[in-house]
Design goal:
The chain has 142 residues and is an all-beta fold. It is 0% helix and 49% strand. It contains no helices and eleven strands. It is globular, with a radius of gyration of 15 Å.
């Protein structure tokens, strides 16, 4: 069962720095891509823990970047969904892509996931980075 009204009670963060090729100057702090992975959802019966082990990710415009998310679930849970969201500097939240636990890896435009159920791992890959990808990214398990 998917519950939409849950509150994360833990949070980790990593930094993705994106810069234009040929421009050694890094983007200003306000333009950096902060990656927040959240999340242990109390009461959901699904997620026990979601973690992210990357602390800094540096890439260039036009390149590919991968954000990793590891999770733990209750033993009796077999079906679940993992969602990736982007929060723009304006605060607007945008849905990017999701993965159902019983489906093959999803792809949507420049976003794709590498889902490894046995390893309890999912990665979001963003192809052909643009400066506009500077945002906060959230991984959520339902």
């Amino acid at each position: 069962m998917c519950r939409a009204a849950q509150t994360p009670n833990s949070q980790l963060e990593a930094e993705l720095i994106t810069f234009e090729q040929g421009n050694p100057r890094l983007m200003p702090l306000s333009s950096l891509l902060w990656v927040f992975l959240a999340f242990s959802f109390s009461g959901s019966g699904v997620a026990q823990n979601v973690t992210q082990n990357q602390t800094v990710i540096i890439s260039q415009v036009g390149k590919i970047v991968t954000l990793n998310c590891q999770y733990e679930i209750s033993r009796n849970v077999h079906d679940y969904w993992i969602f990736w969201y982007q929060q723009l500097p304006s605060g607007e939240m945008t849905y990017l892509i999701h993965q159902y636990s019983e489906d093959r890896n999803e792809r949507d435009g420049r976003y794709s996931v590498n889902f490894q159920k046995a390893r309890k791992s999912i990665s979001l890959t963003i192809s052909f980075l643009k400066l506009e990808h500077s945002a906060k990214y959230f991984c959520a398990l339902w």
